[in-house]
Amino acid sequence: MRRQVGWLAGQFVATLALASALVFLVLRVLPGDAAVVALGVNATPEALARWRAEHGTDRPLLAQYGDWMGGLLRGDFGTSFVTGHDLTTLIADRVQVTLILVGLGMLLAVLVAVPLGTIAAVTHRSAWGTVIAGASQVGVAVPNFLVGVLLVSFVAVHVGWLPAGGWTPPAVDPAGFWRHAILPAVSLGTVQAAVMTRYVRSAVLEVMREDFLRTARAAGHTRTSALVRHGLRNAGVPVVTVVGVQLAAMLVGAVVVERVFVVPGLGSLLVDSVQQRDLQAVQSIVVVLVALVVVVNFVVDLLYTVLDPRLRVAR
Amino acid sequence: MARPASRLTSPSAPDRVQHGTQHGTRRGTRRSISRSARLRPHAFGAALAALMVAALAACTAGSTAQDPSASPGAARTDVTIAVGAEPVNLDFTTTSGAAIPQLLMNNVYETLVKIDQDGSLVPLLATSWDVSDDRTQYTFHLRQGVTFSDGRPFTADDVVASFDRVRTDWLNAIKGKMDVVASTEKVDDATVRVTLSQPSNAWLFNLGTSVGAIFPATLDFDLKTAAVGTGPYEVTQVRQGDRIVLAGRDDYWGGPARLTTVTVRYLTDTTAAVNALRAGDVDMLFNSATGDQVRQLAGNAAFQVVEGTSTGDVLLSFNNRTAPFDDVRVRQAFAYAIDRQAVMDTASAGYGTLVGAMVTPQDPFYEDLTGVHPYDPDKARALLAEAGQQNLRVTFDVPNLAYATTAAELIVSQLAEVGVTATISTLEFPAVWLDKVFTRHDFQMSVIQHSEANDMLTVFHRDYYLGYDDSVIAPIAARADAGTPEEFVTGMKQVARQIVDDAGGVVLYLAPTLIVADKGLTGIAANAVTESMDLTTLAWTS
Question: Is A279 on the interface with B (CB under 8 A)?
């Protein structure tokens, strides 16, 4: 077990190191000069040179990478090229917003998908099962932003129940927070719910063919109680995996949803920073996103070794 | 001769929402999964709950503008405005981009003189000024009883320090507008004398723009994140990517500000802005909706649409340095080939003003030059034949901004009518466009909005990206600037006429300032005569 954790932790560090180097290099070959974008048209050559010296973009690539990594290891993301803001606080602020959205969306997805998927599996030979399976198939195909756009136009614009966009931190005004958070969370969650429903359905179907269920039935359980007492626990294993994989995917989906609902999360910050060639900000945000994805996968892997003794053998 | 700098902006350019497909793919679980019954069913739930609790608990308290609940019958004193382009920071002395002065000028920072809605100069922090006979010495008499938002009194020292810093500390290229200043001296606390190295008609006008902003003499705050000015509003909150909140000052020299809170929300996506207005989240759209969207909203009785002029010339630019556009006949042919009214109808839903030159109707030397190159495909074909360019192929570098891509499509089809094949190449704005077209001059033809006030001489300067040959106009412009006000007008008319004759570039239209607002708002300053979005007269009637 300890070896297992050590192995995973090693992978974790290696992934982050590789990702940071890649991001750094890719950003440096993008066309566009951060100095010109920051200082704008007609900036004198002297002003441009002064800006580059101030921000260290005239130094050798390796030195720039070293500066950045040195800061990262100290937990310091540095200062934005363009806005002058401290990136550590800025990214921390934005990560919270995105995590709240993704968390709410996932919670919603699980709350919808587990009962629906189970019903679909149990009734898979009847009309109900077919309807749920079909609906989830449609749901999987719908992009997040479309759900968002539809929600805005109906709930916010036509009916006026909720604001069309924006954000209020929960600590500032809980009521305002929920009013702003519901629509983006729902648009993230509905698509996820459809994806998860399909996974839950197939997991439960698989469990229903298991011997232990037949044993439980023989021991006097009804089909439903056998499923609830024994089946769902087992079906939970693949579902946990899917939650992990989908959490990572939802981080990406959040970028688009944040755009539609004008939510100041990590995704909007990333898009803005790329446009302004705020390289310091972009590379730091990407590394944070990679770290989040890696952490989720890491936790899923660890859960496996907890859940499944057969995976603990040394590789 | 002061060379004012030019700015390019993307007013209300909607960012493209990337329609990435959403991971709807069914991914198999990555390993064969144990069917052992050792699952702890709460593990996942607990993990997720922990994640959410952590995120929620970590939320730092900020402060948001709460709508003060207006007492019944009293007019509201808060307003929320949607604007497209967000200031990257608050420091226009080192950062270019029209978004910063748009928010701060007049509202937070003030100038000695102000350019009013019809383009004339009126007193602001200076109550009056005297000009010496040789027009090189300006003596400004300063307004008394003015304070900065942090309580410091405004004196001659602040003017001297602000003007001196333009030369020493500013990185923004518009600092060139103050190059003509030889010295700024304090005569006494209420009087400042500015000496110019040569007479300049343009300089006094430039004082009404951001280069003339008056800062405190001692800058003990970070200009990027704070703003201390003498205007009726002060910046109380900056939430990057979201909003900037201004609070009205009770101690403003012109009486208490009309509004207690002005929240400016930055909505890059025009659809999001329109939705916010219709949902009642914002009270006013300032240039943050497309012409088509404004046309639709105009039919809604709850809103008023106010159209003003701006200083933004949408310019079809040619690279005058290289073939085929080094031939004046080709440039003129393009000017005749383009139906500018149709372009304005398409790109801006008909809002805007057709102008021949980069001169706005508020400028003293304005004249209608739209008749110099009327839409005339036959004339265009004849000129191309004369230049030996019947089967001309050009590359058209277009920034990925809504108005530019729309205009470009139509221009391509109009050029096809006269036998020119133009191929559109879309460039990401700002980074790639600036690098390729603006810095490296690696282009044949492009289209962009130049939003700076009075930027004709900047854009048609030999070193600028168009590479226009200014050998004829430069001496005329220099004489005009140093001459009497009458000579200035005559000279600048000549310059504008020359540039239009040469077809150094084609001004497609002058962009409008389009405001859609709640019917209850009054005092909307529609004409953007400088970059400023002037909110000083905005108030609620009911």
Answer: no
Contact A24, A69 (CB under 8 A): no
Distance CA B281, CA B283 (A): 7
Lowest-confidence segment of A74-88, A228-242, B124-138, B446-460 by average pLDDT: A228-242
Rounded alpha-carbon distances, angstroms, from residue B69 to A78, A197, B159: 41, 45, 40
Which of these, A26, A283, A54, lies nearest to B95 by C-alpha position? A54
As to burial, measured by CB atoms within 10 angstroms (0-12 exposed, 13-18 middle, 19+ buried), residue A7 is: middle
Contact B173 A39 (CB under 8 A): yes
How many Å separate Cα A53 from the centre of its chain? 36
Across the interface, whether the CB atoms of A143 and B19 are under 8 A apart is answered: yes
More confident residue, B20 or B429: B429
H or E segment and range at residue B480: helix B473-482
**Which chain A residue is nearest to residue B63, measuring alpha carbons?**
A172
How high is the pLDDT of residue B192? 98
For A129, the enclosing helix (H) or strand (E) is helix A127-141
Where do we find the tokens 């229903």?
A208
Q: B72 exposed, middle or buried (CB, 10 Å; 0-12, 13-18, 19+)?
A: exposed
Among the partner residues B39, B173, B275, nearest to A165 by beta-carbon distance: B275
- The single-letter DSSP state of residue B29 is P
Query: Which of B8, B18, B29 is the mutation pick for testing A, counting most A CBs within 10 A?
Result: B29
Q: How many CB atoms lie within 10 A of CB A15?
A: 16
Put simply, the chain A residues between 87 and 116 with a CB less than 8 A from any chain B CB are 90, 92-96, 99-100, 103-104, 106-107, 110
Query: Which tens digit of pLDDT belongs to each residue from B333-342?
Result: 999 999 999 9
Average pLDDT over residues B140-150: 97
Tokens 């405004």 found at: B154
> Which residue in the set A37, A47, A236 is minimally distant from B171, CB to CB?
A47
Percentage of residues in chain A having pLDDT higher than 70: 94
pLDDT bucket at B489, cuts 50 / 70 / 90: very high
Q: Helices A266-275 and A232-260, interaxial angle, to 10°?
A: 40
Among A131-140, A180-189, B68-77, B419-428, the range with the most confident prediction by mean pLDDT is B419-428
Distance CA B257, CA B401 (A): 36
Question: Does the reported pTM lie above 0.70?
Answer: yes
Q: What is the mean pLDDT of residues A19-42?
A: 81
Q: How is B182-231 classified by DSSP, letter by letter?
A: EEEEEEETTEEEEEESS--HHHHHHTTSGGG----SS--S-TTT----SS
More confident call, A39 vs B24? A39
Nearest Cα to A55, choosing from A43, A38, A30?
A38
Tell me if the bond preceding B324 is cis, omega within 30° of 0.
yes
Taking only the tens place, the pLDDT of each residue in A58-83 is 889 889 898 888 888 888 888 887 77
Q: Identify the closest residue of chain B to A43 by CA–CA distance.
A: B173
> What ranges make up the beta strands (E) of B76-125?
78-83, 113-115, 121-123
Within an 8 Å CB–CB cutoff, is residue A8 touching chain B?
no
